[in-house]
Amino acid sequence: MVRTLRIVMLSLALGACTHATQKGGRDQNVITEEEIDASGGSSAYDVIVKVRPNFLSDRGKTTINGAAPNKPSVFLDGVHFGEISALRSLSARQLGSIRIYRAWEAQQKFGNGFVGGVLELKTRQ
């Protein structure tokens, strides 16, 4: 009984710590393959503008000297691909998902230097 209660309490605690980014059962930090197809966009940039334009928003000044980028960097299949302008060169048909990582998440996953965040694009399998 005590063990079961501990498991339930732990489950509730973990559930409270998850991101509240889901709307209608979808993670608002991810553009899915279905959303990419439905958008009608021809490039990754077009898709983002139509589906989640907030992914492209300026994060504002991120350092005192202003030298750090304030827009997300782009990663394609785990490899640094460039800046926002690189999205125009990627065909929407080849994309399986697009995910935004905010600054704190990007630094944990991709390392220092991504204070503007990261847009992680994955190609279709």
* Helix percentage range: 25-40%
Q: Biggest sheet: strands, sense, closure?
A: 5 strands, mixed
**Structural shape:** globular
| Structural class estimated from helices and strands | alpha+beta
Mean pLDDT: 82
How large is the count of helical segments? Answer: 4
Q: Rounded to an integer, what's the Rg over CA atoms?
A: 17 Å
Lateral strand order in the biggest sheet: 3-6-7-4-5
Beta-strand fraction estimate: 15-25%
The first-to-last residue Cα distance is 46 Å
Order of helices and strands: HEEEHHEEEHE
Per DSSP E runs of 2 or more residues, the count of β-strands stands at 7
Uncertain stretches of 5 or more adjacent residues: 12-21
Describe what you observe in this structure.
The protein is α+β, with helices and mostly antiparallel strands. The protein is 31% helix and 22% strand. The chain is built from 4 helices and 7 strands, in the order αβββααβββαβ. The strands form 2 sheets. Strands 3-6-7-4-5 form a 5-stranded mixed sheet. A hairpin with a 2-residue loop joins strand 4 and strand 5. About 8% of the residues have low confidence.
Brief descriptors of the model:
single chain, 125 residues, alpha+beta, 5-stranded mixed sheet, two-stranded antiparallel ribbon, 7 strands, 22% strand, globular
